[in-house]
Amino acid sequence: MPRGTRKSDLPTKICATCGRPFTWRKKWRNVWDDVKYCSDRCRSERNKGGGT
After folding, report:
1. What is the distance between the alpha carbons of residues 31 and 12, in angstroms, rounded to a whole number?
2. pLDDT digit string (tens) for 4-36?
3. Are 21 and 14 in contact (CB under 8 A)?
4. DSSP letters along the chain, please?
5. Between 16 and which of 26, 30, 35, 36 could a Cys-Cys bridge form, CB atoms 3.0 to 4.6 Å apart?
6. For residue 40, pLDDT beyond 90
7. Using an 8 Å Cβ cutoff, are 10 and 23 in contact?
8. Between the CA of residue 41 and those of 14, 23, 47, 51, what are the distances in Å?
9. Phi-psi region for residue 46, left (φ > 0), alpha (ψ -120 to 50) or beta?
10. Euclidean distance between CA atoms 39 and 8, whole angstroms
């Protein structure tokens, strides 16, 4: 019997900044409901606000 879970079977979300899909990561297992961004770069871009 195979071990683990296939990446295609993991839950996914859409990044609030770039709009790209990203998959669940083990380090997010306790906070998955709160994760909104795919990376630190997207999180920091969202917080900057920009506004041109």
Report:
1. 14
2. 888 889 999 999 999 999 999 999 999 999 999
3. yes
4. ---S--GGGS-EEE-TTT--EEE--GGGTTTGGG---SSHHHHHHHHH----
5. 36
6. yes
7. yes
8. 15, 16, 10, 17
9. alpha
10. 20
- Asked if residues 24 and 32 have their Cβ atoms less than 8 Å apart, the reply is yes
Confidence bin at 49 (pLDDT 50/70/90): low
pLDDT of residue 50: 54
**Cα–Cα distance for residue pair 28/41, rounded to 1 Å:** 17
* Amino acid (1-letter code) at residue 7: K
Are 16 and 34 in contact, with CB atoms under 8 Å apart? no
